[in-house]
Amino acid sequence: MSSTLPFWILKNSARNSIATLQGGRRLYSRCASNRNKARWRLFSQVPGTGKISVPCSDVALQKAYRHTSTEEDDFQLQLNPQQVNEVLRAGELAHKTLGLVSGVPNSVLRFESNQLAANSPVEDRRGIASCLQTNGLMFGIFDGHGGHACAQAVSERLFYYVAVSLMSQQTLEQMEGAMESMKPLLPILHWLKHPGDSIYKDVTSVHLDHLRVYWQELLDLHMEMGLNIKEALMHSFQRLDSDISLEVQAPLEDEMTRNLSLQVAFSGATACMAHVDGVHLHVANAGDCRAILGVQEDNGMWSCLPLTCDHNAWNPAELSRLKREHPESEDRTVIVDHRLLGVLMPCRAFGDVQLKWSKDLQHSVLERGFDTEALNIYQFTPPHYYTPPYLTAEPEVTYHRLRPQDKFLVLASDGLWDVLGNEEVVRLVVEHLAEVGQHKPDLAQRPSKLGLMQSLLLQRKDQGRHTADQNAATRLIRHAIGTNEYGEMELERLTAMLTLPEDLARMYRDDITVTVVYFNADSIDAYYKGG
Amino acid sequence: MADYSNKLYHQLEQETGIQTGYIRTGSVFLAQTQDRLISLKRINSRLNVIGIPSEIISPKKVAELHPLLNVHDLVGAMHVPEDAVVSSADVALALASAASQNGVQIYDRTSILHVMVKKGQVTAVETDKGQIECQYFVNCAGQWAYELGLSNEEPVSIPLHACEHFYLLTRPLETPLRSNTPTVVDADGRIFIRNWQGGILSGGFEKNPKPIFTEGKNQLEIQNLQEDWDHFEPLLSSLLRRMPDLETLEILKLVNCPETFTPDMRCIMGESPSVQGYFVLAGMNSAGLSFGGGAGRYLAEWMVHGYPSENIWELDLKRFGALQSSRTFLRHRVMEVMPLLYDLKVPRWDFQTGRQLRTSPLYDRLDAQGARWMEKHGFERPKYFVPPDKDLLALEQSKTFYKPDWFDIVESEVKCCKEAVCVIDMSSFTKFEITSAGDQALEVLQYLFSNDLDVPVGHIVHTGMLNQAGGYENDCSIARLGKRSFFMISPTDQQVHCWAWLKKHMPEDSNLLLEDVTWKYTALNLIGPRAVDVLSELSYAPMTPDHFPSLFCKEMSVGYANGIRVMSMTHTGEPGFMLYIPIEYALHVYNEVMSVGQKYGIRNAGYYALRSLRIEKFFAFWGQDLNTLTTPLECGRESWVKLEKGMDFIGRDALLQQKQNGVYKRLTMFILDDHDTDLDLWPWWGEPIYRNGQYAGKTTSSAYSYTLERHVCLGFVHNFSEDTGEEQVVTADFINRGEYEIDIAGHRFQAKAKLYPVTSLFTHKRRKDDVELSDLHGK
Fold first, then answer.
1. Quick one: which of A75, A489, B558, B633 has the fewest CB in 10 Å?
2. Average of per-residue pLDDT across A91-95
3. Alpha helices, H only, B17-144
């Protein structure tokens, strides 16, 4: 390890237990810090061997400052604060929503999002889109493991399944009609994307076919108004997971598509998404991403309202669910070392067919002559694999009726939650709100005199210098990686964290993706008053 | 130009009866630093000689002129009492109505779709209201001129780019400013302030401009053109520092009005090199109103007579090529240009953006040896080489009107040129090859160039390329490579202009082949008495003057490389050779020259050394000393003109007439006498020349001569009649019998005038002495 790493890293790694596990043909040694948990224990990543690499501009930018630990000669650690900001902000995405959605005041004021990679390429995905045929905005966080393929697929497809589930019979008929007569489809979603977000263009037609099968089935149900939101979310998660699982079993002509669907099925992703329509907030979660609500009580105090439960070994409800679903004889083996069958941290996820299919099915699929080595897929059967499936993508859906005191929603991957507690996150966002509000003394009520204008401008300039982040998500990430043991922000630590060599970064931090959604108290208020 | 605009606007009101808001307020240019004051003094002495009254005044006087100004931090100011303010919209209206009265039709709310061109000639303009036939088309589309130029089938590149530009309007003061309160320019504070309807109008050129419309006309950006108070803050602070009493003044609004800037801070006008009849007037760098009138006049002359009445090469569209038309280049460059408008303008300033575009293959090699670079027409050229043990000042600190920090470095380079041998990379020069199957090449060139080109193969001729009036369109060296092929070397920035001129004047049906080979050759200049030794050692060929006389060109081998064009000239008057090397051999030849040259004391040198050498040898340079209004006879180059040979060439009639009548100005070399190089301000160019106390002309270039240990200025001496101010004939006698002074920023230095290079007399004499001495020894 490089001697130029600041002392605290060395200190930390010395404390870490160094575990060497023998897995198949590969030796995989790993410094596991207490806070930091790699999802798959036995699945190592070989960067850059996947046939499909996702071009990701924010990753590319960060690469300018990153390097592998072997290039020690020109190891320049010092980033100036400006460069630190550049790296942190590369993934920023912010959007102000329109005031009105089809005549109804929009309860979402704006959102701010950001992403910082630790894996190379990043395995987190995010999605933000509005439904065009029904009302509602959707926000999703998808945390991949064992590669980014599954997270990518889920981030692209899940919202379509939800949107279709919510459509009325009439809209579905229109869609089907358009498909039959080869006419252009009604637009389903309006995506709000970061320029670095990518999609697999080649396979979307296959995905569309499957989506169509899904809506055809919905049509057969003959439900006038479509599913309710809770049902829609439930169905969509499970349907998409089963499609992912079936796609790879079905014979596919195109090698590219086949390899990709294999990668998707054999990697995994947890997902957490929120659907906001007026005051109706639904959150669906499968895995250990988390969504919390920042609430300001009438007395001005802030509190935190968690909207999801992490599906992992620390969750008693999950433990008992697992025990219920499997024979008593497996009680001691289903969770080993806080991991599902001793390998996977989350207990619910998309993909990961290794933990869903029977051994026979896995063998028969993989024996069809995939080049598993090149595809970076590790075929592996965990010990005590008796009664699959062990893993499910069934989400837990929470409904919350938004109140005027609900100010913001934070959705984030576990990279954030591992480091920051719920209350801390709320506190940081509240601080951010206060600073941004104070920063830029408003020019709307423009002073009329030159002198007053000057002092106002000087104030604005002065404050602009101190608040580094305009984006709450960036602030959260900054604190997540830059806070030392004593809870203080430490620039040195932040810089060091950002300049970690590419192949070491994942040992000190996880991919972090954060989306902060601000609600418009006025329009929520109006909703209540208007009835 | 501004002067003509001033007069024009003054008359306009009387002529048209339309109020232009013309008020003669005068203007005050403030100096917060001594350097700024020097720069104002220089401007002041130039204004005075062209008849515009102005004076340098003390801060106390400034306070009297303008009641609101804070003068505590000022060191002085310049007052120009006749400057005026007008309202731009009213002027435009008045001009339009004056034009209409004279029969001009104006179509408003009409947009141009396309300019129609047939056979390289403008024929019509396609608009959204139909076609308008025309012979001439003037593109004055301001910030859209670039796009309009590119929309042509044969694109006309007009390098300019817009930046957001802000100015503030206020409500009237409690006691409204008197309408004749002078306009204030506080360049150190980056602002200007003028009165506007009893209040003030103030704007400036900020350090961090916001370029706009890089991708062309963009509706979104037009709509977003909003006030940006945060961006204006530095200028506002500067305004309130200058006029603290304005604190309580009420804001009316902050206007965001994009202005157009060019890559070199000068506007763009003239005819397109590729399309005849396509004229341009754009890129006014925010001085549209003050220069508009004058620029309009020159352009009109240009269109009517074919050339303007003043030399405006510096504004000519043809000084740029397509190479300055990259959007990225323009965007970056204007961000440097806009603040520069109010920066201190010091001698030898180089742009920092848009660099390293064209480079010689030796660039990296030279750079590693300490080369500092300047840029001409996008080409990087070495200024001088900083020795490893020496450090120069940082860019900002190096700005000076006095002796620069590189003085000693250039001195040692010059010394090396004089005593041993130096190598200068001069690849930037424009190089053309002209060949023909028959004898047309010679015939055509004889008509286009003023000197006799019918010389034996292998000879080099210095010649002008003159216009009808006998003025230099280009000054070049032409080597006759074969009976039917010629190699032409011209200044770097002639690449577009010279090409256009040759194309325009070559007969269309001739089988002449004109090729731009600039990029094909790397040029190395070996200057110095030992250049002979280096070359003969590398080529195993005798290079002594007997075998290789002066102004001779031969293809030979240098090192392993064959086909190197060796020319016995150096562009400085010093002995030596130019090597034109096909670029793939450049590195090899350079390495060989340097390693063989080691024992002769060879070293790298740059353009500053070259400049010092050429100016002390009285070598005038096109673009600096020579221009389209100067003739060979006016700079003592009669011997380079084939007047007596009975051959016709462009400009011959004018020259014959001039020969008969005598010249009205004469390029003269001045040697500053009582000038202290260490302590006095250095001359630059444009300094007024006084003869017997009377204004006689301006300098065109200057350099320190390390041989004479004096400053040398070149400049034209006129003979203005004492009574009428009319120009009279200048004779050699007139020059020789005068007492001269050069005015540098208000201080006059005595100067000796010379019509012939002094040093050559010295060296000639010295050689004679040498010969006599050797004779003596021989006996």
1. A489
2. 78
3. 34-49, 59-65, 88-101
**Model confidence pLDDT, tens digit, residues B560-594:** 999 999 999 999 889 999 999 999 999 999 999 99
- A446 touching chain B per CB within 8 A: yes
Q: What angle do CA B563, B569, B574 make, to 5 degrees?
A: 140
In 3D, which of B74, B69, B118, B85 has the Cα closest to residue B5? B85
pLDDT digits (tens, 9 = 90+) for A501-517: 777 788 888 899 999 99
Instruction: Identify the CATH number of the domain in which residue B371 sits.
Output: 3.30.1360.120
pLDDT in tens, B198-253: 889 999 999 989 888 887 776 556 655 778 888 899 999 999 999 999 999 999 98
Residue of A439, A443, A450 best to disrupt the B interface, most CBs of B under 10 A: A450
Residues B411, B453 within the same domain: no
**B632 in any annotated domain:** no
Q: What does the alpha-carbon distance between residue A108 and residue A137 come to, in Å, rounded to a whole number?
A: 8
Helix locations, A1-42, DSSP H: 7-15
In chain B, residues 20-79 whose CB comes closer than 8 Å to chain A: none
Q: What is the CATH number of the domain that holds B675?
A: 2.40.30.110
Kindly state the tokens that stand for B620.
């005038």
CB contact under 8 A, B236 and A457: yes
Mean pLDDT of A344-360: 89
User: Closest-CA residue in chain A for B254?
Assistant: A450
Same domain, B275 and B291: yes
Backbone angles phi, psi at A348, to 5 degrees: -135, 140
Residues in chain B closer than 8 A to A461 (CB atoms):
230, 233
Residue B63 counted as domain residue: no
What is the CATH number for B496?
A: 3.30.70.1400
Residue A76's pLDDT band, with cuts at 50, 70 and 90, is very low
Domain that holds residue B493: 431-517
Bridge partners (DSSP) of residue A155 are none
Q: Which long-range contacts (CB under 8 A, 24 or more apart) does A24-27 make?
A: A24/A378, A24/A380
CA angle, A55 as apex, A53 and A59 as ends, to 5°?
110
> B530 and B508, same structural domain?
no
Whole-angstrom distance, CA of residue B517 vs CA of residue B519: 5
Strand order from edge to edge, sheet including B268-271? B137-139, B278-282, B268-271
What percentage of chain B has pLDDT greater than the value 90?
66
- Chain B positions touching A449 (Cβ under 8 A) are 247-251
Give the distance between the most distant pair of CA atoms in chain A: 81
Mean pLDDT over A281-286 rounds to 94
Is it the case that residue A71 has pLDDT exceeding 50?
no
CA distances from A239 to A159, A186, A377 (A): 12, 22, 24
Residues of B in contact with A460 (CB under 8 A): 230, 233
What crossing angle do the helices spanning A149-166 and A204-221 adopt, rounded to 10°? 30
pLDDT tens digits along B694-719 = 999 999 999 999 999 999 999 999 99
Close Cβ partners of A508 (under 8 Å, ≥ 6 residues apart) = A9, A12, A33, A36, A118, A497, A500
Minimal Cα–Cα distance from B230 to chain A, Å?
6
A439 touches B: beta carbon within 8 Å: no
Quick one: which of B191, B168, B333 has its CA closest to B260?
A: B333
- Residue B328, both tokens: 């990225």
Confidence band of B622 (pLDDT split at 50, 70, 90) = very high
**Hey, is the C-beta of A443 within 8 angstroms of any chain B C-beta?**
yes
Please judge whether B229 and A453 are an interchain contact, meaning their C-beta atoms are less than 8 angstroms apart: yes
- pTM comes to 0.68
Is there a domain that residue B699 lies in?
yes
pLDDT at residue B462 tops 60: yes
Residue A462 contacts B where some CB pair is shorter than 8 Å = no
